[in-house]
Amino acid sequence: MKTRTLLLTSLILMAFVTIWSCSNNEIDPDPEVNAMSRDSLNVSRYSRGWVHYAQVTKNGNYFRRMFIDSGSAAVVSNTAEIPNEALFAMETWFGHEQSTVFIRQRNSQWQSGSFSPGNPSYSVATQNSCNSCHSRAASTDFTFTKPLLVKALQKRQVQFVQCNQDSFNPCDLSVYLGN
Ligand code: HEC
Question: Considering the domain boundaries, does residue 35 fall inside one?
């Protein structure tokens, strides 16, 4: 009797583990193997609508995904200019683990913020630490990835690039021109 109970318990446990690992696979964040493909630019995230335009892959299984709010994406499509109040979001991923979401908004000057994925917050403020590094991308409106944005909107495809740098370190600026 005891053995049967034990057997039954382990069978139930195994079933749970199988279901858990399957449902885990369904949220694979890697767009190369995920349904969120190169062709689907419009996504809904953090209770807003975005255009997902680029992924930058760096050293150590680390990658960053770039988004712009849908309204501003429409303006960029028509003018190739980033309008006032445009909001950018950048997800950071270590393999399958998502970390902080960084945001930048073009107000009278660029303002910055960040939040954890489960707790979106869109408050921004002037942050010199962000601005000083982004000033290297002055020729592209203080965003590194504007060329990838313009290209993604023209081709209607998410742009994928990579370089051998660690997390925050900029790639050679030519990388952001795309392939
Ligand atoms: C040491 C340099 C550096 C610092 C500091 C930095 N960034 Fe960036 N940021 C980058 C680079 C480089 C990219 C382009 C993607 C890549 O190569 O990682 C980028 C891209 C972005 C993007 C996507 C739009 C764009 O500009 O291409 C956002 C949003 C962003 N950063 C937000 C922030 C915020 C918010 C801060 C401050 C908390 C910050 N960044 C600080 C280097 C930096």
Answer: yes
In a domain, 9, yes or no: no
- Domain around 78: 29-177
Asked whether 114 and 100 are in contact (CB, 8 A), the reply is yes
Whether residue 125 is contained in a domain is answered as yes
Give Cα 53 to chain centroid, integer Å. Answer: 9
Cβ–ligand 1 distance for 62 under 6 Å, the answer: no
Q: How far apart are CA 158 and CA 154, in angstroms?
A: 10
Cβ of 177 less than 6 Å from ligand 1 = no
DSSP string, 122-158: ---B--HHHHHHHGGGGGGTT-SSHHHHHHHHHHTS-
| CATH number for the domain harbouring residue 113 | 3.50.70
The reported pTM is 0.84
Residue nearest to atom 26 of ligand 1 (CA): 143
Which of 46, 100, 102, 129 maximizes ligand 1 atoms within 8 Å of its Cβ, making it the mutation to test the pocket? Answer: 102
pLDDT digits (tens, 9 = 90+) for 27-61: 344 444 343 456 679 999 999 999 999 999 999 99
Query: pLDDT tier at 104 (50, 70, 90 boundaries)?
Result: very high
Ligand 1: which of 93, 103, 134, 145 to mutate, judged by most atoms within 8 Å of the beta carbon?
134
